[in-house]
């Protein structure tokens, strides 16, 4: 080999070493597939996970959990209001007080199971109510709030209305005109007009009046005492 040939061989080896060094530098500077891409842009897979709320490690991201969890203020706003202590402590409405069904003289009292002579029938019978003197056509009132349980034309007592009140108290109005102001099933209030005075067949020989009676639990009682109009 001549001197010229040897010189070219040395140059070639020097260029080869330079190329190899350049390749190593390029490899060192080139980003690996596991490194974050330049400028902070994620690859497509990572971008898709971020949008679906899944982190790169496969877990739900903290930002996604915090955004989907309801805040305490919104939960409190959707909770129905609790009744106030004052509302719970309100007392139950009390039954209405009693009034007399009509104004007038009570000329025949409740007999309390004792027999009395009936002037019309000419026989001894119990007088299970009170007779209140009144003109025909005088207005008759409900003695307390309640519900009409019966409206019937009784052969002895005439047109009769029964009203059920609190505590199983029933008021009974006998000798009304056949044209009444209420019907069975109606709710009435204390003092409401229910009819007018008419005739009582079994007491027709007496002055016009209303025969008024009461029952508690189905048993006859003194109307005046039951309504608190007289002392025991």
From TrEMBL:
<feature type="compositionally biased region" description="Basic and acidic residues">
    <location>
        <begin position="14"/>
        <end position="26"/>
    </location>
</feature>
<dbReference type="InterPro" id="IPR016047">
    <property type="entry name" value="M23ase_b-sheet_dom"/>
</dbReference>
<protein>
    <submittedName>
        <fullName>M23 family metallopeptidase</fullName>
    </submittedName>
</protein>
<dbReference type="Pfam" id="PF01551">
    <property type="entry name" value="Peptidase_M23"/>
</dbReference>
<dbReference type="InterPro" id="IPR011055">
    <property type="entry name" value="Dup_hybrid_motif"/>
</dbReference>
<feature type="region of interest" description="Disordered">
    <location>
        <begin position="14"/>
        <end position="98"/>
    </location>
</feature>
<feature type="domain" description="M23ase beta-sheet core">
    <location>
        <begin position="126"/>
        <end position="223"/>
    </location>
</feature>
<feature type="compositionally biased region" description="Low complexity">
    <location>
        <begin position="61"/>
        <end position="78"/>
    </location>
</feature>
<dbReference type="InterPro" id="IPR050570">
    <property type="entry name" value="Cell_wall_metabolism_enzyme"/>
</dbReference>
């Amino acid at each position: 080999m001549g001197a010229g040939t040897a010189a070219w061989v040395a140059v070639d080896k020097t260029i080869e070493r330079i190329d190899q060094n350049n390749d190593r530098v390029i490899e060192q500077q080139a980003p690996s597939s596991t490194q974050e891409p330049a400028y902070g842009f994620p690859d497509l897979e990572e971008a898709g996970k971020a949008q679906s709320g899944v982190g790169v490690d496969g877990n739900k991201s903290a930002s996604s959990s915090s955004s989907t969890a309801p805040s305490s203020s919104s939960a409190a706003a959707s909770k129905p209001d609790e009744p106030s202590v004052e509302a719970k402590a309100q007392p139950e409405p009390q039954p209405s007080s009693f009034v007399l069904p009509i104004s007038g003289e009570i000329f025949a009292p409740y007999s309390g199971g004792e027999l009395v002579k009936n002037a019309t029938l000419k026989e001894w019978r119990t007088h299970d109510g009170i007779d209140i003197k009144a003109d025909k056509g005088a207005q008759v009132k409900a003695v307390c709030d309640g519900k009409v349980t019966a409206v019937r034309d009784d052969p002895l007592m005439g047109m009769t209305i029964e009203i059920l009140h609190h505590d199983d108290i029933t008021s009974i109005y006998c000798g009304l005109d056949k044209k009444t102001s209420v019907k069975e099933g109606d709710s009435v209030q204390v003092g409401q007009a229910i009819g007018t005075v008419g005739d009582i067949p079994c007491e027709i020989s007496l002055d016009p009046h209303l025969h008024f009676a009461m029952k508690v639990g189905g048993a006859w009682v003194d109307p005046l005492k039951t309504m608190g109009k007289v002392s025991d």
